Amino acid sequence: MMLRITHNADLTRLTTFGIHAECGCLVEYDSPDELRQVADEHHGLLSGEVFCLGGGSNVLFADGFYRGTVLHCAGDAIEELPPSDGQADSVVRLRVGAGVVLDNLVDYVAARRYWGLENLAAIPGRVGGAAVQNVGAYGADFSQCVELVRAFDIDRHRVVEYPAEECAYGYRQSYFKTPDSPRLAIFEVVLRLSREANPRLGYAGVREALGDTPQEEITPAMIAEAIRKVRSAKLPDPSEVGSAGSYFKNPVVPAAELPGIEDSWERFCDRHSVAHMPLQYHEGADGTAKLSAAWMIDKSGCKELSSGGAALWPTQPLVIVNRSGSAIAADVLALQRMVQDRVEEAFGVRLEPEVVRL
Predict the structure, then answer these.
(1) Please, what is the average pLDDT of the chain?
(2) Residue 208 confidence (pLDDT)
(3) Contact, 308 vs 299, CB < 8 A?
(4) Of 246, 300, 306, 307, which one is the catalytic site residue?
(5) Mean pLDDT of 190-217
(6) Chain centroid to CA 75
(7) What's the pLDDT at 284?
(8) pLDDT tens digits, 148-168
(9) What angle do CA 131, 115, 206 make, to 5 degrees?
(10) Residues of the chain with pLDDT > 70: what percent?
(11) Distance between CA atoms of 43 and 159, rounded to whole angstroms?
């Protein structure tokens, strides 16, 4: 597509919640040259508030109207790069446009038996958003495949590059989400994949979905399809039910705080005559523990909570859905607070939203 600028634009088609939203100006572009053109010829559009929108699968426009400019990258090229000096024969490097649908990219590389992205099958969104959010599932994170991120610096009107080691990737976190980051519009990501088999089958349900297939015969495409089956059994189809995927992050706490969290949970069970179950968590090597937000939401009695047209998905309470199809942002935010308050009462831990709220 060519550069397109739309004032007072409807953003509903570019998000997955199915909640009406508009913005002061929408700039749809393919390349950094087009952004440079906007900066030179329409400077006022970039001088104020700017938000970069990818697949719209992780965002909620809180009052239905964003007064600034929304940048949407439509660049969807995928190019295999020639080997670099000293590159191992097993390594594959791809240059991928920020507008590429992540799940389409998973299929593209899986069909060529390139390993690295297969566990990210069925995650909604686009590559640019994945590079910012560091999406992940079933033992894999997008950052594990990132070699380089290219972006347009909105204030300096030039292209900048960030090697993976400068992206400060962590759990659903990156440098691009921090206050230290300049205003950037990511337009391209260089990925580093492998031809060598490396199946990650540690999560419940994935190995089972593969049946009796010997591990040495498992392909990236088989894993991607198995994960789609597991996800579809638990998660809503975004084409049928509006949502933004997992709404809350799994809390990461110092392991030393676990006894206090367990005590809070036991007291809650006693007060509400709830059957006590041991706290679910995964202890890391860095002295932290990751708690299961879905388990905490479920066990603290949140599954039946709702607000207006917003509700929790029955088989995965981590997901807030536009149940009625006519929910407004205020419904979602009210339900968010209800869940946060209940979980905090039960565990002494306040859940942090994963969804970006504007």
Answers:
(1) 93
(2) 86
(3) no
(4) 246
(5) 89
(6) 19
(7) 84
(8) 999 999 999 999 999 999 999
(9) 90
(10) 100
(11) 17
Catalytic-role residue among 147, 188, 225, 354: 354
The CA-based diameter of the chain, rounded to the nearest angstrom, is 65
The one-letter amino acid at 124 = P
With CA atoms as reference, report the closest residue to 134 among 171, 181, 96. Answer: 171
Q: Is 172 a catalytic residue?
A: yes
- Which residues, including other chains, have CB under 8 Å from residue 231's CB and lie 6 or more apart? 121, 122, 137
pLDDT at 321: 96
* 118 labelled catalytic: no
Task: Provide the whole-model pTM.
Answer: 0.89
Mean pLDDT score, 8-27: 94
Q: d(Cα 150, Cα 268) in Å, to the nearest integer? A: 48
Residues forming a β-bridge with 27: 5, 71
Of the residues 150, 172, 192, 323, which is catalytic? 172
Residue 246 appears among annotated catalytic residues: yes
Res. 256 pLDDT band, cuts 50 70 90: very high
